[in-house]
Structure formats: C-alpha cells, structure tokens
Prior knowledge:
By secondary structure, the chain is an alpha/beta fold. It has helices at residues 16-29, 40-46, 79-92, 103-116, 140-161, 176-184, 199-211, 230-240, 262-280, 300-303, 312-321; strands at residues 3-8, 33-37, 49-52, 96-101, 120-124, 164-169, 189-191, 217-222, 246-250, 286-291, 294-299.
Amino acid sequence: IKRIGVFTSGGDAPGMNAAIRAVVRTGIYYQKEVFGIMRGYEGMIEGDIVKLGARSVGNIIQRGGTILKTARSKEFRTKEGRLKAYNNLKKEGIDALVAIGGDGSFTGLHYLTEEFGIPAVCIPGTIDNDLTGTDYTIGYDTATNTAVEAIDKIRDTALSHNRLFFIEVMGRNSGYIAVNSGIAGGAAAIIIPEETMSFENLMTLLTAGEGSSKKSNLIVVAEGSKIGGATELAKKVAERSDYFDIKVTVLGHLQRGGSPTYFDRVLASKLGVAAVEGILKGQTDVMVGIRNSKIVYNSFDSIINHVHEIDQESLRIAKILSI
Length: 323
Ligand code: ATP
C-alpha cells in the first residue's frame, strides 16, 4: 500500500476532523501518501481529491463538522457509479481507503471492496451510536453532552413555570442519546424506540406526578420513538388532561455541531490510528471499533443489520431514579 484515501460520508458528527487528522498523520508516519476525498462518495465519483500533508490537518482537532465535507450520493448506490469512483481512485494511485461514517457509508464501502478488491476500513462516525462492533461511535459523546446542556437550561424555565416539557433528541432508530441524556438531565421519563412504553403507561406516570410534589416534569423523547415524537405526544397528553402546561423543544441539528468533547477527540484519534495500522496489516472490509477499551476489527456481515443494543442496566437506573 502506497496511497491511502480518506473521506467522510453520511451525516456529519463532531470528532470527524480529529479522525481525519489521525488517519492523515498515521499514514504519513508509516511513509504513505494520504489523499482526502471531498464530499464522500459524491467527490469520489467526480474525482474531487486532494493531497493532504501532516500540516494540512493542523488546527482541526477541536473543530466540529468535517473539513472534507460530507454528502449522500445516489449514484454510488449503482454499479456504474462505483466504477466511476474506482477509476478516479486508480487515476490517483489510491490503493486503500478509510471511510468515516455510519452504516450506509460502510455498506457502500463493502460493495466497492467486493467489486474491485480495494482494501478498506470504516471508522464509525455518527452521533447516533447505532453501530454494533463498538461501544461508542465518534460524535455520540459530544451530541449527548449538548443534549444534557440543553435539558439543564430547559429545566430552569420548566421549574419557574411548573411546566411539563417534552424534549426530543436525535438518534435515528437508536435510543442511546435519549437514555443517557435523560439519566444525566434527570428526566422523569425517557421514551426510546427499543422499549415500548405505551401511551397509557406515560399517562399513568404523568398523572402520578400530579399528586406528588414534583414541580416540573421533563420527558426526553428519542426521535425514533414508536409512540410519536415530542410534538405528537404533547398534543395527545394535552387532549387527555388540562392539568398540564405543556411545551415542546425539538433539539434538532444543534446536536450535530460544536467542538468535540475530549472523549470524542481521543476516541477519533485512537480509531484513526487503528484504521491505518489495520489496513497496513491486511485488514479489509471491516469496521474498527472500541469494545471494553480495546481496539477491535469487525467484519461487514457482523455489523450491518445488527442492532447496537441499549444497555439494560442504564434503563433500570433511569427508572429507579425518576420516581
Ligand atoms: P448516518 O448514520 O450518520 O446517516 P450513514 O453512513 O449511515 O451515516 P447514509 O446516508 O445511509 O449515511 O449513507 C451514506 C452514503 O453511503 C449514501 O449516500 C450512499 O452513497 C452510500 N450507500 C449507502 N447505502 C448504500 C448501498 N446499499 N449501496 C451503495 N452505497 C450505499
């Protein structure tokens, strides 16, 4: 392997820059050339590729977003699109790839490896923490901290007015951000896709609060909730009871931005180094991850279509502490 291509793909996540930096510098450390592919698979198809030096990734470890930009490409889902992309890689002499992204990006990479035999490793970069094969994905810690900060602020105003707040957090079909921001923010209830709390259960819980001396209630709702998002739930509760003064906050994309936490920077640095070292040792069609503080490489098949299960102990803790 002489030339490594690195790119970010799918949704952006804080810490992606730290991962790019780690990949570039590790490649150079092992005397390889490193190229940045702009806008994920879109830039690969268009041949938008730039050479990166150790200094070109200076001063980015603390920055959110991704200097390589990210995109979603329909064309890459076709064989013709992937052939175009591969020809551009060949033209630049790129003979190995590191992708930073989620399961969609990993799937695209899998097809490219299968069809053209190019060695490739995926680094999990998504705020959702929805990939099995790693305890944490890059960006999840920052996004959860952002959610907690927002919940704390909402609590101040909720308390002042005795209000019931529904706060919707991101996570796609995963409840990770919701569970942990809910525990850390002291939520009265946490609604996640993995565990079906019925609407009736929620009503029981809320009306129990009516009789207690609780001054305010914060309900954290994962965007993938099966019983409706924050707006829908608030509307349904309002229809059933006029006891509550209800407000809704959908945190949305602010969870995707901001300077990465120390945790995400270190995670991204470790995974970036491990991705390049793995590729140089012959790893391919794998995702690098961290399980129980150890670097692991897991095959495409062992990751895609598998759910990153929510830790049952976290759910138990959340319930005990919300009484
Ligand atoms: P996130 O979880 O943060 O959204 P992701 O990597 O899952 O990140 P996707 O939009 O699902 O984001 O995928 C990124 C890109 O990967 C897609 O735009 C597409 O170009 C490519 N891709 C996804 N699925 C496939 C597939 N089945 N075949 C080929 N390419 C794919």
